[in-house]
Design goal:
The complex is a heterodimer of chains A (573) and B (420). By secondary structure, chain A is α/β, with parallel strands linked by helices. Helix content of chain A is 43%, strand content 13%. Chain A has helices at residues 6-17, 22-32, 36-45, 65-69, 72-83, 125-136, 141-144, 181-190, 203-212, 233-256, 273-285, 317-324, 353-371, 404-410, 458-472, 478-496, 501-517, 521-526, 528-536, 538-544, 558-572, and strands at 57-62, 96-101, 113-115, 118-120, 152-154, 218-224, 260-265, 302-307, 347-352, 381-388, 394-399, 416-421, 427-429, 448-453. In chain A, helix 10 links the parallel strand 6 and strand 7. Chain B is 25% helix and 19% strand. Classes of the chains: A alpha/beta (573), B alpha/beta (420).
Chain lengths: 573, 420
């Protein structure tokens, strides 16, 4: 057994026994010649691995902010009532174990849960009752689960649609044969393709760097970890166009010379596994994967799927690589780019699902087609996942440059007030900014738009985000690990109504420290929305703060401070 | 070997190309604080107290390799404050009761607290219940003090190459934990080395603590007269009138008051310039005048503490928290990681000396109510100055008071600045 196989090995135990026992850990540690604590460290990093026996059905209920506003609490209570179990507790029932989990990529169909990784969407207490009854009766999950497909709500006119147009296998690859890797690279470069995973790094530059690297082996990784709450566009692309994504990876391999690729698929999308595997098999059968691809001598490339195990940070490319290596998904220090020192020390290209799909379309459709669409700096279209207080949540393929207002109109948003662009790590905008355009020149968007109406509590939104970061930080560096806990304390103060203008100032100052000193993007962006919201929704926060007497300029919640004592005395009389 | 020329805070420096910035700066006489950094290891980059600016961008200094033309900022006011903030985060994330810590005086983290001049933490203490694990053979791991720097993970290995420490969990639940089986293979010498590698008091070797007396500890011995400058002083009206001082002890042990009295004959000089109003020193029980300054020992553990503190705020122009308990709760705050119920049950119902089947926790409307937590004074009212120490040295206290009241220049010598 190799270290790189650790995650799969742990999945084997998890799936077979429902948990990873001391014994399993000892066995694995012995095989890998490492100490048990090291395996324990890996197991405990991923929240789909359990160290205690679980029930036959493990239920993961999404607690993202969209879910929270769509009735998460009610559904949570329903699950507890119907199963007689408590969330987060082991060993209560041989049939069920319940956990909360962060966004599962079904924001357009919330409240939603995964039961043994089968999706159940648009839950209501009645539905929960039926589901649990059916499971008790021994019905098969496969038959009773929901269809997780996100509805494609909008496409540009046909001559401007890029992603969701007709696709057949090899549509891009067949054009490779007539071009050298350099020519293909130039094409990608001319189309101005920038990464769609959030950082918008020029793809051609990344690929070139790997092409020029001299490491003995090279790798291509497709980042399908899509953990940013409110994002489900990669899921939709993999569901509808997995072949296109794979072609993009093959194009990258053609350029860099990599012989091996991985699709790092988040466990939340386990239901797509079979489909992607089938596509890979078809590619192999058609000589589009394997050896001498397309008859091009020595063009050998194979793709493997690695299923993640529940860790948002594994979407960060260096953490993803660590995870692939069978380690804790901790972000690496930024001494090298993955294209210099990536998977097992080799040059590695990591790109988002959509980036690969786009690259394939560029090859297929040609530069002229692409460059007529979009804005000067953002060419082509963008796939968005839209959720929240809108009548038509789902997938939108938009031409770069569309305004927020147009989008809100398309999705039939009802009194939009607080709009989150690119998920909690992104930015929030208020209604004075709805004329802004989605493109690089103005408002860049990685793929998620969450719309909240006038009646939603901004404090709740921000608390949900901060809790998410606090729990999903990889824990390796001080400012992100400790800082997000500290910010959460501040938000609790706002919630309690004992916050002063000084508290708000401090949130901004402290958020900035976290941003500047954190080791990776998670910490660097975790306080962004919070800081921004304080200014953009100033009126709201002005109502939240209390003015205090100058010398007692600190507000103290005396009632809460003596509550425990009072109730204890009452109870012990 | 090629040398690079680069700038730190505008000063031209040279060092071997590709060498580590921390070491390169040191060779050029510039100190960059570090905690996780080890000269011979690949940078860990976990603690972030070495944050500097490289060509205008914030970065962990220990991960930078020197190259020609780099512009590095180290000691700008902003960076000094940023690094201080990171250490403050470590103090509030763990439970650092320095006065009762075996490593105190030998602790690198504590020393950086002194170096960066932390008097109190801007952040609220989190008071998370963390375990002290004494199950290993030779080592005790005290999670209250671990800053997850990962030094031990990289450096402590058995003879056959197995790791003894490793991180577990993630996010706010991250811990650095120990492998009992591997630990048992460590020799006494290896265990002691692990204790020294740890920059805090998280790794201790059974039977080895408290071996060095006060004054002989690593960071006591700093001879260099390095001075901490104090807070800028508020402008006061110059007056020849005696200043009026009040003091009180809230949830403290009276140690700080004992220390205040510990200036021997100096107290006579002091009486030339100040007079006491409400204070246990003179036993004046109530305020009879408005005071210039109030010195508060101890934090707030019950409702009466809060009342007294608020009364002090009303009656004094300037309030000073004296000692660790006043500044952030100190030793009484050890109870903050437990629920109040656990504490009271333990003291009154389930203790060895309580009556069999005791059910009543003493209470009466005249007895102050116990708060759910012990609070720092600055969480209740505005506090103008903080004097750290447990207790602070007598001369130090009065010098600071005079410094505040009469704007006399005074800065404290480094070895006097203590949390224990
Ligand atoms: C905390 C964090 C989470 C991330 N999650 C994802 C993700 O789920 N999917 C993704 O493609 N990129 C994610 N990224 C960005 C990746 O690090 C990386 O930039 C991206 O995969 C590169 O691909 P691209 O250039 O095609 O965008 C994340 C980054 C950070 C800092
Ligand atoms: S910023 Fe957060 S997620 Fe990134 S390395 Fe630090 S602790 Fe890990
Ligand atoms: S001496 Fe160091 S480890 Fe011990 S409590 Fe103080 S800061 Fe923490
Ligand atoms: S035990 Fe000590 S050396 Fe190990 S991570 Fe914690 S603070 Fe660092
Ligand atoms: S010394 Fe640089 S991050 Fe710890």
């Amino acid at each position: 057994m190799k270290r790189t196989g650790l995650l799969n090995k742990l999945w084997e135990f998890q799936n077979k026994f429902g948990y990873i026992s001391d014994n399993a850990i000892a066995q694995i540690a012995q095989k890998l010649s490492v100490s048990k604590i090291e395996i324990e460290g890996v197991v405990s990093f991923y929240h789909f691995f359990h160290r205690q026996p679980t029930g036959k059905y493990i239920i993961y209920l999404n607690n993202s902010i969209v879910a929270e506003f769509k009735g998460f609490q009610e559904i949570k209570a329903a699950f507890e009532k119907e199963t007689g179990c408590t969330f987060g507790c082991y060993g209560e029932n041989p049939l069920f174990t319940l956990f909360e989990t962060s966004c599962i990529g079904l924001s357009d169909q919330e409240p939603a849960a995964l039961i043994n990784f089968f999706p159940f969407t648009n839950l209501t207490p009645e539905k929960v009752k039926t589901i649990i009854q059916q499971l008790k009766n021994g019905n098969s999950l496969r038959f009773i689960s929901s269809n997780p497909t996100s509805k494609i709500q909008y496409l540009p006119p046909e001559d401007k649609t890029i992603f969701y147009r007709k696709y057949e296998m090899g549509i891009a690859l067949k054009k490779l044969k007539n071009h050298t890797p350099d020519e293909v690279l130039n094409l990608i470069s001319a189309a101005n393709l920038e990464g769609r995973g959030g950082a918008f790094f020029p793809t051609a530059k990344k690929w070139k760097s790997s092409k020029e690297s001299s490491t003995s082996k090279k790798y291509i990784i497709c980042n399908a970890d899509e953990g940013e709450p409110g994002t489900f566009k990669d899921k939709s692309l993999l569901n509808n166009l997995s072949g296109l994504v794979i072609e993009g990876m093959i194009v990258a391999a053609y350029i860099s010379g990599a012989a091996n690729g991985f699709i790092y698929l988040r466990a939340e999308y386990m239901y797509l596994l079979e489909k992607i595997e089938n596509t890979l098999r078809e590619f192999q059968e058609n000589n589009l994967l394997g050896n001498d691809i397309l008859g091009i001598p020595k063009f050998n490339f194979n793709i493997q799927i690695q299923v993640g195990a529940g860790a948002y940070i594994c979407g960060e490319e260096s953490a993803l690589i660590e995870s692939l290596e069978g380690k804790r998904g901790e972000a690496r220090i930024k001494k090298y780019y993955p294209t210099e020192y990536g998977y097992l020390g080799c040059s590695t290209i990591v790109n988002n699902v959509e980036t690969f799909a786009m690259a394939a379309r560029i090859i297929e459709l040609g530069i002229h087609f692409i460059s007529t669409i979009g804005t000067k700096e953002s060419k082509g279209t963008k796939v968005l996942s839209i959720s929240g207080d809108v009548a038509k949540p789902g997938i939108y393929e938009i031409e770069w440059g569309m305004t927020v207002k147009e989008i809100l109109h398309l999705c039939q948003a009802t009194s939009p007030h607080f709009v989150q662009i690119s998920g909690p790590s992104g930015i929030c905008i208020n209604n004075t900014e709805f004329d802004r355009k989605i493109c690089k020149e103005d408002l860049i968007c990685a793929g998620s738009i969450m719309v909240f109406n006038n009646f939603r509590s901004i404090t709740k939104i921000l608390e949900n985000y901060t809790k998410f970061f606090k729990e999903e930080s990889c824990g390796v560096c001080t400012p992100c690990r400790a800082g997000n806990q500290i910010l959460h304390e501040k938000i609790k103060k706002i919630k309690k109504g004992i916050c002063t203008s000084k508290d708000l100032e401090e949130i901004k100052e402290w958020g900035k420290i976290i941003k500047l000193t954190s080791r990776c993007g998670l910490g660097q962006f975790s306080a962004n929305t919070l800081i921004m919201a304080l200014d953009k929704f100033e009126g709201y926060f002005n109502q939240k703060i209390i003015k205090t007497n100058e010398n007692l300029n600190v507000e103290f919640d005396m009632e809460a401070a003596v509550y425990n004592y009072d109730s204890l005395i009452k109870d012990t009389q | 070997m090629k040398n690079s020329s680069f700038k730190i805070d505008g000063r031209v420096c040279t060092a071997e190309t590709g060498s580590n910035l921390i070491e390169a700066a040191k060779q050029n006489g510039i100190f960059i604080p570090t905690l996780c950094h080890f000269k011979h290891l690949d940078p860990l980059g976990t603690c972030r107290v070495c944050t500097v600016k490289l060509n205008g961008r914030d970065i962990a200094g220990c991960t930078v390799r020197v190259a020609d033309g780099m512009e590095i900022e180290v000691n700008t006011p902003e960076l000094l404050d940023t690094r201080k903030a990171i250490i403050e985060m470590m103090f509030v994330e763990g439970n650092h009761f320095c006065p009762s810590c075996e490593k105190s005086g030998d602790c690198q983290m504590q020393n950086l607290g002194y170096e960066t001049g932390i008097k109190y933490t801007r952040f609220p203490h989190l008071f998370i219940d963390r375990i002290t694990d004494a199950r290993p053979e030779r080592i005790v791991v005290n999670q209250n003090r671990c800053i997850k720097c990962k030094r031990c993970i990289e450096e402590v290995k058995t003879f056959d190459g197995y790791k003894v420490f490793y991180s577990i969990n993630k996010g706010n639940k991250t811990l650095v934990s120990i492998d009992y089986e591997q630990e048992a293979k460590l020799s006494e010498l290896q265990a002691v080395r692990a204790m020294h590698i740890c920059p805090t008091g998280s790794i201790l070797v059974k039977g080895k603590s408290f071996s060095k007396p006060f004054g002989d500890r690593q960071f006591d011995a700093i001879t260099e007269e390095k001075s901490m400058s104090l807070n800028p002083v508020k402008k006061q009206r110059a007056t020849t009138k005696k200043k009026i001082v009040a003091t009180t002890s809230l949830a403290g042990c009276f140690g700080c008051h004992m220390s205040m009295l510990d200036i021997d004959l100096g107290i006579l000089d002091l009486f030339e310039v100040i007079e006491f109003n409400k204070t246990p020193i003179t036993d004046i029980k109530n305020f009879t005048k408005h005071c210039d300054i109030g010195l508060i020992e101890g934090g707030c553990s019950n409702t009466q503490n809060i009342e007294v503190l608020r009364e002090f705020r009303k009656n004094c122009d300037i309030l000073v928290s004296v000692g660790e308990c006043a500044i952030w709760g100190g030793l009484p705050a050890m109870r903050n990681t437990f629920s109040l119920e656990e504490c009271l049950r333990e003291s009154y119902l389930d203790s060895m000396t309580s009556e069999e089947n005791e059910t009543i926790i003493p209470n009466h409307e005249d007895i102050p109510k116990i708060l759910n937590n012990v609070y720092a004074n600055h969480e209740i009212v505005k506090i103008d100055y903080h004097i750290p120490g447990c207790p602070p040295d007598a001369n130090y206290i009065w010098n600071v008071v005079k410094n505040i009241l009469f704007q006399e220049e005074y800065s404290i010598a480094h070895p006097k600045y203590k949390y224990d």
